[in-house]
Predict the 3D structure of the following.
Amino acid sequence: MTVPGRRSSTFTRLLRHGFTDPSAAERLLDSVELMPVRDDPVLLDALGATADPDLALLGLVRLLEAQPGPTARRELLDTLIAAKPLRDRLLGVLGASAALADHLARHPRDWEALVTYEPRDLHPGVEEFERGLAEATDPVSLRVAYRRCLLSIAARDVCGTTDLAETAAELADLATATLRAALAIARAAAPEDAALCRLAVIAMGKCGGHELNYVSDVDVIFVGEAVDGADEGKALRSATKLASHMMRICSETTVEGSIWPVDANLRPEGRNGPLVRTLSSHLAYYQRWAKTWEFQALLKARPVAGDIELGEEYVAALEPLVWQAAERENFVVDVQKMRRRVVENIPAAEIDRELKLGPGGLRDVEFAVQLLQLVHGRADAALRSGTTLDALQALAAGGYVGRADAVQLDEAYRFLRSMEHRIQLYRLRRTHLVPEDEADQRRIGRSLGLRVDPVAELNREWRRHAAVVRRLHEKLFYRPLLDAVAQLAPGEARLSPEAARERLVALGYGDPAAALRHLEALASGVTRKAAIQRTLLPVLLGWFADSADPDAGLLNFRKVSDALGKTPWYLRLLRDEGAAAENLARVLSAGRLAPDLLMRAPEAVALLGDGDGGGLEPRERAHLEPEVLAAVGRAENAQQAVTAARGVRRRELFRTAAADIVGSYGTETQPAEADQGALVDLVGGAVSDLTAATLAGTLRAVVRDSWGDTLPTRFAVIGMGRFGGHELGYGSDADVIFVHEPCEGVPEQEASQAANRVVSEMRRLLQIPSADPPLLIDADLRPEGKSGPLVRTLKSYEAYYRRWSLVWESQALLRAEPVAGDEELGRSFIELIDPLRYPAEGLGDDAIREIRRLKARMESERLPRGADPKLHTKLGPGGLSDVEWTVQLLQLQHGWSEPGLRTTRTREALAAAAAAELISAEDASILDEAWVLATRVRNAVMLVRGRAGDTFPSDGRELAAVGRYLGYGDGHVGDMLDAYRRTARRARAVVEVLFYGA
């Protein structure tokens, strides 16, 4: 019986040695099996040095209990205490792997595999592992022998005898030996099949790359040929039987578990293709049908089992095709797809724990290295390694990757792979998730040498290395391009001009020579400005490459940088404010409109930042109008005043366009806006408010310049069409009508002349050629159209509408809303027209027939010649006109009784009609979706082309840019057009019923 003082002392000692459950550890130390060595300090020190002392002690007791008798138990204990190499290896494995502890408990003499400590034992290869598996004659004995070999690999790993690369290579060599043993068992079971064929097993993936995990699918491809004189069909059937049996031997679960799954899905046609093909069949497939990712996979192809000569013929035949992949037609698109991380299939709860596929994960390093190999390996055979770290070293030695970047990436990759190994080693399960349990994290941290605060240190190091990978992943592609042109320190290996050109082409740049000139202009020299540009450009180039027109993005960036190069805040903004640089890259490469607006006043770059004065949230009219009026008040004359107002308009158009682009594309920290309607409302509301504020400022300037503070007539501007509906696009004219009312005592003729002068001067000043985009005023919706007077009094409008008004004019007035000038007069005009646009008891049958007739005529007469009606966003079936006329007919019929319909906004009226059950919620949703999509397409066309358009562009790059804006990736333009046609077709079917009464 132990006295309390001793128990307390032992308890403390165990805590000090890293045990987390000293009470349980004390009971285990008191067990009969450990009594002979219980007080030996060597044992306690050795247990304390393991990743999990509690686990190691439990495993040791289980192993001792499993020994066949006292003699065997004494032999194990004596060797354990006397031989430090065994002690470190055995306890190291027991403290890191519960699965291998289970194996030792089932096979208690396998500990002897860890006793030998000869030089040749330190780094065994395929031959040594084949000897270790030689006695296996069936799947069960093969598993036992495999685990015995795995035990020795894990022991060297956890003791630090081998590093990450050596451990991964040993695991690949053990897999090679295992495949050979499994194939030998399969051949022995079917000697007739074996006699008919030659079968080669080609390792792919991490096994082929000589960098395998502890638990991983072993990817293979099979090549079969008939032996001399055998029928090819029979030979391939025999080879398929052998290959299938070999896969089952490794993959199936027995009393000793499984080894690992053998996966042949990288073969031509994947799981749908034949398991075994002849060499000529493989070659024909890769020459005609293979995709870029399949050539990427072949980077790691290596013959490992079966007919090695046939395997080498396979590799030799396909190798030239691998290095020609960069010349394939779709290579750029494929590379851009592969460069973008595919994380959609990772559950949201797991993405932050993913070592392989998460942001800054192992896949980032592997893909980046492999893509650079594909681009440059054709001209440089030194890059043709299947092993990630070897290839990374070769890329750095050749100047294809910056040396400092390669060192950091190497360290990060080794750390992340070591974490992955330790996670898998514990249960020998295939996983890439960092466990959430603190005890598991503690064991992993200690196994990696983090002993002070293992959990905190592990998470800190993991996040640090992941951040390095995330930062370098894009930089890896672009940093050497800058080094190639920057004329920095001599002696450094640099990309040749041809290699730089190849890389730019592979990343989507259409004019690599021009791109290199831009890079040289931006990044050359030893100035602080050039140094900051060299820091920024690697990331910016990646964002440009993510767009439909990388060349335009880079050219525009050079223009902006040239314009603002001497401005101290510009580069500081891009360097220090995280959002600014990415926002700028998106804006500069998304089309012509936003860059054109920015070039006219580059200081607007400040809006893209996070600080005061920046921000992309469009400003409402309540904030805009005071600024415009203040700018007008400071000007000396009307022209200067309107120039100032137009300058504010240009800046705010840029802000709105930038917010729209960033919201549509998304950023690394903020996903794209999922609600397309919200983006449409943002643009429509912002541009309409901006136009109203500009007109208010222009009106103030004109009146002040000619009449001082008081115009001899009250004057109001009424917004019509999209302007009145708060739905203006970037290229929309301002549809308006003008109303005036003579001031008391002023003759009507004098008042009318003044009002007409105001209108004429406003239109002139807003269209004067300048650096700012013009604002065209369109008054054609006034009574009598172009033939009628530009301005009328309220009484004149009343007389006209009472006597002459046609149904189309009532329809047009549905969008009327005062936007500038005398507010009371504007309200009076609205009171005048309300009975016209919301007629009591709705429309009569004749009026409805007239509206339908007008609509049908417009469809047949106004559609441009040669345009595809199904893709015309305004006049085509299911386009804007269809939806708006349907909504407006509902307003004319029911607005008198349904207050919700009395709005100038299409989407609001549509929602109100559904709420009033005038149309079904489903029909309302279909019409709303079509209207939003058509509006988004028109906005996209204006952003991309810099001029308005109602149909999709015919130019390939412009069409791709529209697709990117709408959320379609490279190569999915066809999907975009199909989606538009489908949406419009569904809307047209609703219109046929609701509008035409079909």
